[in-house]
Amino acid sequence: MIPAHVLLSGVSRGFGTAKAPTLALSQVSLAVARGEVVVLLGPSGCGKTTLLRLVAGLIRPDAGGVTVDGQPPQPGDGTAMVFQSFRLIPWKTARDNVAFALPRLGRAEARERAEHYLSLVGLSRFAKSWPAQLSGGMRQRLALARALAAEPTLLLMDEPFASLDAQSRELMQIELMRLMAARPATVLFVTHSVDEALILADRIVLMSPRPGRIAEEIAVPFPRPRWNHDTRALPDYALLRRHLWERLRDMVLNDPASDFHGRG
Amino acid sequence: MARSDTAPGRGRRPPGGAATLTVLRLGFLALLILLWWLASANVPRGIIPSPAATTMAAAQLWSEGRLQTALGQSLAVYGTGLLAAIAVGIPLGALMGAVRIFGRTVDLFVFALAATPRVAFIPLIILLLGLGIEAKAVIVFLGAVMPIILNTYAGVLARDADLIEMARSTGASPVRIAIHIVLPGALPFLVVGLRLGATIGLINTVVAELYTAVTGLGGLLALYGNTFRMAEYFVIVLALAMIGVIVTEGLRLIEARLSRWQTAERP
């Protein structure tokens, strides 16, 4: 058997004070193969982001083990992360934002690499612009360029397109798939959106809230590449979509912390 | 929330252009000089010298070299004290903000010291260091360092946790995070601290020159004030005001240069 690229075994992680602890993740086990695109889908509070931060090496588990390439994860070591709110450095130009994410390279080399990846996402003209001068879609492409420039073998994406409008979001999904086809990496992608999950994933990991745990894993059978035809027209798409939506709906309605609790 | 989400291009430009502003400021200066002239003509016993008399006194002091000498003495005291305050205040404030337990331990005492009138220490400083430039520079330093420490501290405490997490995710070292994320983020606070420090430092320069060996602009201020040479006295007051304007405007220009990212228009 091929060893997993990312492996979580019996992982639990809590937050909060000693008096009022909350369990973000409980007994989560997951193996992700090299080159696989796994989408973590679930309602708020299901620990999706916590799982990504554990895999990124930003936090450590309270119990259980996390390994990337068989080792405990180290931030930036072959891993790059894309965040929902972009997290661009407002006082750095687009080019320097990308170059900042390459601490292992020399200054000149980092800038050269940054310019290459800016051109890859179509931002060459804006290399010397500050983030405040860019539109939302451009900021997201910049954040993506920053992550890709590190040439990661593992890309962690935390609802990266959630703050974009519907059209930008679909175009970014296609752009991401094109970029990943050119330079494959393992992807762990967090989203609230059933459609986004179905369009991007090789496998969907459905998570349930409070405490966060894995409810179901579903292989997505649609052929790749998916950008040259409308995956949503496939008959299986509607079936899978309805199944996932019903599971999510039940989770939200049965979650005492949800605004929609008991409204089914 | 990352600050990258603020509305773009919302500058802090004054209405109208820079030229309009310059004209308005010159007009206001003319108004002030007119008021000064009216006061000099109407206040009895020549307590307020006329602008013309003051200009002549300035030319006189300059040609005798007394203004330059005093200016040099004062700037040496002011510069030494202020630079030392910057060199100590920024690292100390940053350390207090970065190492939370250290900051929490000492901030109470720093606040207490900042609230104590620093002139209270002058007799002690004179006993320790005498009446020379060292004692004067320490008096300037003590006044200027407090706002620099406290504002750097506040700026580092207000750091953006989201940006720091992003930086950590790239594998950036703590030093790289401090230089590229925390300190630039603290810049607006830092500039406030420097401006306050520069202002208090100038006040303390004059205080030091009055209380220790009487030298510099503060010394001349006392000399001319006590001997009712009001034209000369006004020259010194105006010289001090000009130092203050030059230093604070210089800081403002540096700040504007470093925060172009906030005011830049969309291309």
UniProtKB/TrEMBL annotation, chain A:
Gene3D superfamilies: P-loop containing nucleotide triphosphate hydrolases (3.40.50.300). Residues 6-234 form the ABC transporter domain. Pfam families: ABC_tran. The keyword Transport applies. Transmembrane segments: none annotated. One of its GO terms (molecular function) is ATP binding. InterPro entries: AAA+_ATPase (IPR003593), ABC_transporter-like_ATP-bd (IPR003439), ABC_transporter-like_CS (IPR017871), ABC_transporter_ATP-bind (IPR050166), P-loop_NTPase (IPR027417). Keywords: ATP-binding, Nucleotide-binding, Transport. Belongs to the ABC transporter superfamily. This is NitT/TauT family transport system ATP-binding protein. It comes from Cereibacter ovatus.
Automatic annotation (TrEMBL), chain B:
It holds the Pfam family BPD_transp_1. Keywords: Cell membrane, Membrane, Transmembrane, Transmembrane helix, Transport. It comes from the Bacteria. GO terms for biological process: transmembrane transport. The keyword Cell membrane applies. InterPro entries: MetI-like, MetI-like_sf. This is NitT/TauT family transport system permease protein. It comes from Cereibacter ovatus.
